[in-house]
C-alpha cells in the first residue's frame, strides 16, 4: 500500500503542549497533486480505544482501490494503514493525516477533489484531559468537511454535552455573521449498536435515533427541570452544523474481539459488520457524496490545501499560550482566519491591477498618474477585504478585523514603493533608449552629411 500516516500535531513530552509540525503539514497539503484543487477532509474523532484508526483504514482502502465494486479487496489480507491494535494502549497521539492525498472526480461539480483522511487521538475519556480533548476536537471540527464522531453502543447525554462549547460558539457565530453554520457535517457513528431490534443498523435507523436524541420527534425530556439547558444544547447543535447524521454499526464479531491474532482481515469480521462497512464508507467518499471543505475566507468557495495550512497555523498560534478553547476564543480565532484570508484576496486585487498597468508593455507613466491609479486600486482592495470578510460587519466585537485592515493598508503602501521603483526603472530605460536613438540619429545625419559633402567635392569642376 502506498502512503503512510504523517503526524502534523504532536504533544511535547516535556511540556505536554501540542505543537505543529509545519514541514510535515506542508509536505502533504502542498503536494503538486493537491495544487489549487478543492479539498475534502474526512476526520474521525471520539474516545480512546473505540476503533477510530481501524475504521479509517477502510476509508484508506476505498480510496486506494478507487471505489471499485470490489474495493475491500482480498478478504484474507490484513488491514493496513493508520496504526491500530486491539489492546488497551492507545495508538494515536495528536493528529495524523495520510501522506498521499487521494484524487477523486466529484460527479456533481465535474472537478477533481483532493481527499485528505485525518486520524485523531482519543478525546473526552478517562485517558485525556478535558483541555486536551477540547483542543483536539476543536481543531478536528474546524479543519474537516466531515467529522465522524465515533461513539460506543448509543448516543448518550454526555456525548452531546462534550459538544457544548462548539454548539455555544456555533449558535453565536451564526447570529454574528448570519451566513453559514460554523461547522460542516457531523456524523454520529454508533459502534456496537445495542438495540438493533428496536432500530435496525444502518443510516435509516440512525436518523430515527438521532431525531429522538435531538428531541425532534416530540418526546419530552425525562427531567423537566433541565429542559431549558437540554433544549438549548440541541438547538445549538442544529444551528452549528450544516448537516447532522447518524449511522448505527453492528459489532465486529466476538471472534475478532477475543482473538489475540486478529489483524483486521475482512474474513475475520462479522458478515453483518462487513456489509455495513460496504455501505458506510461510500456514504463518506463516493464521488457523488464528497463534501468540499468550505473556505473560511472566500465566500461560497471551497478551500485549498494552502488555505488549510494557513488555517491550522493560525489555530495553533492562537492557542499556543495556553488559552482555553472556549466559544469566545473560537470566535476570535475564526475572525482572524477570515480576516487574514480576506487580506490575501485584497492584496491580490491590488497587485493584479497594478501589474496590468506597469508590466504588459514596460512603459512608464507620470508619477502623478501612477499615484492616482494606486489610490484607486487601494480603495478597491480595501473594499474587497470588507466584502470577503464575513466578520467585517461585526468589527466592533472583533477588533482583529480593523487590525488586519490596517495591516493590509500598510502592505499596500509597501507594495506601492516597489511599483514606484518599477516605474522609475521603466522611465530610465525609456530615457536611455531615447538617448541611444538620438545619438544614432545624430551619427546617421553626420554620416549622411559627410557623404553628401564628399559627393559635392568630387563633382566640383
UniProtKB/TrEMBL annotation:
Assigned keywords, A-Z: GTP-binding, Hydrolase, Membrane, Nucleotide-binding, Transmembrane, Transmembrane helix
InterPro entries named in the record: G_GB1_RHD3_dom, Guanylate-bd_C_sf, Guanylate-bd_N, P-loop_NTPase
GB1/RHD3-type G domain boundaries: 36-289
Family label: Belongs to the TRAFAC class dynamin-like GTPase superfamily. GB1/RHD3 GTPase family.
Single annotated GO MF: GTPase activity
Membrane-crossing residue ranges in chain numbering: 441-458
Protein's name in the database: Atlastin-1-like
Gene it is expressed from: LOC108666443
Amino acid at each position: 500500500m502506498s502512503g503512510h500516516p504523517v503526524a502534523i500535531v504532536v504533544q511535547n513530552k516535556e511540556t505536554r503542549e501540542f505543537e505543529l509540525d509545519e514541514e510535515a503539514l506542508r509536505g502533504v497539503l502542498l503536494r503538486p497533486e493537491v495544487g489549487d484543487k478543492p479539498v475534502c477532509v474526512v476526520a474521525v474523532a471520539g474516545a480512546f480505544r473505540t476503533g477510530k484508526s481501524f475504521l479509517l483504514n477502510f476509508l484508506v482502502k476505498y480510496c486506494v482501490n478507487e471505489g471499485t465494486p470490489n474495493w475491500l479487496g482480498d478478504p484474507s489480507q490484513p488491514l493496513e494503514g493508520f496504526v491500530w491494535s486491539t489492546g488497551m494502549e492507545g495508538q494515536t497521539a495528536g493528529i495524523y493525516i495520510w501522506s498521499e492525498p487521494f484524487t477523486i472526480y466529484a460527479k456533481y461539480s465535474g472537478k477533481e477533489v483532493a481527499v485528505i483522511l485525518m486520524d485523531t487521538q482519543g478525546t473526552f475519556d478517562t485517558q485525556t484531559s478535558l483541555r486536551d480533548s477540547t483542543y483536539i476536537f476543536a481543531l478536528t471540527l474546524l479543519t474537516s468537511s466531515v467529522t465522524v464522531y465515533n461513539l460506543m453502543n448509543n448516543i448518550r447525554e454526555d456525548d452531546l454535552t462534550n459538544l457544548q462549547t462548539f454548539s455555544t460558539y456555533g449558535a453565536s457565530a451564526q447570529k454574528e455573521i448570519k451566513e453559514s453554520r460554523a461547522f460542516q457535517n457531523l456524523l454520529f457513528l454508533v459502534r456496537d449498536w445495542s438495540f438493533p431490534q428496536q432500530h435496525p443498523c444502518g443510516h435509516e435507523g440512525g436518523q430515527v435515533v438521532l431525531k429522538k436524541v435531538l428531541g425532534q420527534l416530540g418526546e419530552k425530556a425525562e427531567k423537566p427541570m433541565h429542559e431549558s439547558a437540554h433544549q438549548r444544547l440541541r438547538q445549538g447543535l442544529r444551528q452549528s452544523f450544516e448537516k447532522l447524521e447518524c449511522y448505527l454499526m453492528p459489532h465486529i464479531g466476538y471472534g475478532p474481539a477475543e482473538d489475540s491474532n486478529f489483524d483486521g482481515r475482512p474474513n475475520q469480521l462479522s458478515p453483518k459488520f462487513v456489509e455495513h462497512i460496504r455501505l458506510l464508507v461510500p456514504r463518506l467518499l463516493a464521488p457523488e457524496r464528497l463534501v468540499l471543505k468550505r473556505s473560511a475566507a472566500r465566500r461560497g468557495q471551497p478551500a485549498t490545501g494552502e488555505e488549510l495550512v494557513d488555517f491550522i497555523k493560525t489555530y495553533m498560534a492562537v492557542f499556543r499560550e495556553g488559552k482555553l478553547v472556549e466559544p469566545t476564543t473560537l470566535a476570535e480565532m475564526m475572525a482572524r482566519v477570515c480576516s487574514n484570508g480576506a487580506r490575501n484576496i485584497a492584496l491580490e486585487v491590488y497587485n493584479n491591477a497594478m501589474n496590468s498597468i506597469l508590466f504588459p508593455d514596460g512603459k512608464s507613466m507620470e508619477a502623478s498618474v501612477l499615484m492616482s491609479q494606486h489610490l484607486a486600486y487601494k480603495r478597491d482592495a480595501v473594499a474587497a477585504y470588507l466584502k470577503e470578510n464575513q466578520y467585517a460587519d461585526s468589527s466592533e466585537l472583533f477588533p482583529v478585523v480593523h487590525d488586519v485592515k490596517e495591516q493590509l493598508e500598510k502592505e499596500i503602501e509597501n507594495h506601492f514603493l516597489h511599483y514606484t521603483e518599477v516605474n522609475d526603472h521603466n522611465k530610465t530605460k525609456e530615457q536611455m533608449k531615447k538617448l541611444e536613438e538620438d545619438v544614432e540619429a545624430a551619427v546617421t545625419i553626420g554620416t549622411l552629411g559627410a557623404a553628401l559633402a564628399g559627393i559635392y567635392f568630387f563633382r566640383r569642376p
